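Hi there,

I know you've been waiting on this one. I reran it after we fixed the sequence typo, so this is the corrected version. Both the input and the resulting structure follow.
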Amino acid sequence: METPETSATPSQPADSDQAAPTAATAPTAPTDTGIAAQTWAEASADPHYREAVVDLLGALAYGELAAFERLAEDAKLAPTLADKGKLAAMASAEFHHFDALRERLARIEVDPTRAMEPFVPSLDEFHRQTAPSDWLEGLIKAYVGDSIASDFYREVAARLDSDTRGLVLGVLDDTGYSSFAVERVRAAIEADPRVGGRLALWARRLMGEALSQAQRVVAERDALSTMLVGGVAAGFDLAEVGRMFSRITEAHTKRMAALGLAA
């Protein structure tokens, strides 16, 4: 029998920026008060709910591991030593997030590797199809792609027990990348306005790929899709799924404006 856990929020690097004033805030998801009022020990008595949470944590864990790898690679493209150091610190924060998720999976007696494996093909394919060609495209990819994924997981978090929700929201905390990306991209556009058109097209492509990837995650995992359409989260219906993706799209439009780009 598993005991209730208190959720720890992974720490951020000491020099992480606070969210930039121009950065758009994440959409606010409606809360499923039934599950939200329960602890993990109470909610996990339902095997379908437990399966959905394992899927969610597995998807998040692999996403954080991939983010760590990508930021470490992006650091090689950074134009200055200061930028390299900043990205290295952010990559370290992503790895701490991954570690927190891996630890939680182990605590609930789930093999973290097995929990992540179902999500490897789709996430790897997303990154293969959206490989950036330069430093600025890499910034846009992390800012747009990661933000959409975070918005999606925050929507799901509203339907989680209190312990799991705290962990998930802690993992989704901004590592400082948003304000960093906004500052660098706006400076690049100011220096050469022609850059804006290319980056706007790139961001639109990323938006489409990221939404498709999120939809695949839901469609391919029965327990997770059931959570979203009402099986374990009473009162949530298919119409709300459409509204959820509308909120994610609206948040993307605001983030593009923060970058100085047309959505």
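Quick highlight: Residues 148 and 252 are 7 Å apart (CA to CA).

Best,
R. S.
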